[in-house]
Specification:
416 residues, alpha+beta, DNA polymerase, domain 1, Dna Ligase, domain 1, 4-stranded antiparallel beta sheet, globular, DNA-binding
Length: 416
DNA sequence: TCTGGGGTCCTAGGACCC
DNA sequence: TCTGGGGTCCTAGGACCC
């Protein structure tokens, strides 16, 4: 118990909305909703504080948001701009600590342990960091400080908006006790209900229970919960130190139709397009996947997933498509309207697909051909290279990516 | 309310092997 | 012959996060 860590959790305030305001100052001070148009299928990605006053919050259906706040301005959003701003923030963070981990596009953990000589005590360092982010990006953030990721995360949420909160070492239990159980990361809607049913409402109620009780009732989740209530990063993701981002375990793309469909040509062309997107990202990451999964959501929202594991891993659009197509035809309740389709690749193999030599060479040529197609897409846009099946059925309904026609990021620059 | 898209982790059952 | 236990892989579903 000699070396206590100092962890910062930096969380951007209303990130997507704030970036939009940067590009269109007329939005400032107004009710703004990012995520899509008011009558669309979809949910709110981010809402301005003005919109939140009407009960609008992220993950809420857009149509609900429109009813609650009819005068709100609805925006599709600009993912590329968010990524660029996120990278700017990341560069500022690196100036404060070499141990930075982006937890998502708008939040990060910093291990600030042992930086006192350079940046002063935690609160001073946090104020400097806050000011640097503001001056470099014109964006506000909130910063939580604690001895663990968990404490830093919870305290940054309490610091919002535009604040800094330091939980002094030793005060963790006292800080957590009055909070709602829902404030603990990992406690969602269902967990909250289950806890309330037992009369557990505040984190302090949890801390008073025996670990065995929670483990017996809720298994691993319950045990981790008991630890969190005491301020420990007990088990799971929060246990890890702050460092390099972990390698991805799966790559997926999915699409929800604007209207449900039974049109098999349309369905197959969507599967083809999703397979291409997954294949492309596998190739970009130099990955091959053994398991391919189809996701199928019907009109009534019932959702099934069906997977197949290959003997040899692949990164080819055609193989991915062949598998998910087969899975679709095997499991689709014929004639039932489809709301969503998804394709996921997982179980990445470090080695390439084996097999005999000739087969290997043939495969390699195919992979090269697809990589060439990726580069063409980078230059001329996603629609310039499509495999035959992808051409049918008018799948190009709406592209969230780059709606303003900004230049895309050219990841493969410098390659021949 | 009428429910996106991209992920992670956990559980649980069955197959299969020793 | 009618029955064990552990380990690993695969599959399906679900909670949760941003």
């Amino acid at each position: 118990m000699v070396s206590l860590k100092t962890i910062f959790h930096v969380d951007m305030d209303a990130f997507f909305v704030s970036v939009e305001e940067l590009f269109d100052p007329a939005l400032r001070g107004k009710a703004v909703v990012v995520g899509g148009q008011r009558q669309e299928r979809g949910v709110v990605s981010a809402a301005s504080y003005q919109a939140r006053r009407y009960g609008v919050h992220s993950a809420m259906p857009l149509r609900t948001a429109a009813k609650l706040c009819p005068h709100a301005i609805f925006l599709d959003g600009h993912p590329q701009r968010y990524r660029e701003c996120s990278e700017k923030v990341y560069r500022v963070l690196l100036a404060f600590s070499p141990l930075v981990e982006m937890a998502s596009i708008d939040e990060a953990y910093l291990d600030m342990t042992g930086t006192e000589r350079l940046h002063g005590p935690p609160l001073r360092a946090a104020h400097q960091l806050h000011a640097r982010i503001k001056s470099e990006t014109q964006l506000n953030c909130s910063i939580g400080i604690g001895i663990s990721r968990l404490i830093a995360k919870v305290s940054s949420a309490k610091a919002k908006p535009h604040g800094i909160l330091w939980v002094i070492p030793g005060q963790e239990a006292k800080f957590l006790a009055p909070l709602d159980v829902r404030d603990l990361p990992g406690v969602g809607k269902v967990g909250e209900q289950n806890l309330r049913a037992l009369g557990i409402h505040r984190v302090g109620d949890l801390a008073g229970l025996a670990d065995g009780f929670l483990e017996e009732r809720f298994g691993k989740w319950g045990l981790a919960l008991a630890g969190k209530a005491r301020g420990a990063d007990a088990g799971g993701w929060f246990d890890r130190g702050v460092g390099r981002d972990a390698d991805a375990k799966s790559i997926s793309h999915e699409h929800t139709y604007t209207e449900d469909t039974t049109d098999i040509e349309r369905i197959e062309s969507t599967l083809m397009r999703l397979s291409e997107m997954v294949g492309r990202r596998l190739r970009e990451g130099g990955l091959r996947a053994r398991t391919l999964q189809l996701k199928l959501r019907y009109q009534d929202f019932t959702t099934i997933t069906r997977a197949h594991t290959l003997a040899d891993a692949t990164q080819l659009d055609t193989e991915i498509f062949a598998q998910v197509r087969t899975l679709f035809h095997r499991h689709w309740r014929k004639g039932t309207a489809v709301r969503l389709l998804g394709v996921e690749a997982s179980q990445f193999d470090p080695g390439s697909g084996q097999g005999d030599l000739i087969e290997g060479q043939r495969r390699q040529r195919w992979e090269q051909a697809f990589s060439a197609a990726d580069r063409v897409r980078d230059k001329f846009g996603e629609s310039s290279v499509l495999l035959a099946t992808g051409l049918k059925g008018g799948f190009r309904e709406r592209t969230h990516e780059n709606p303003a026609g900004l230049p895309g990021k050219r990841k493969r620059d410098g390659e021949n």
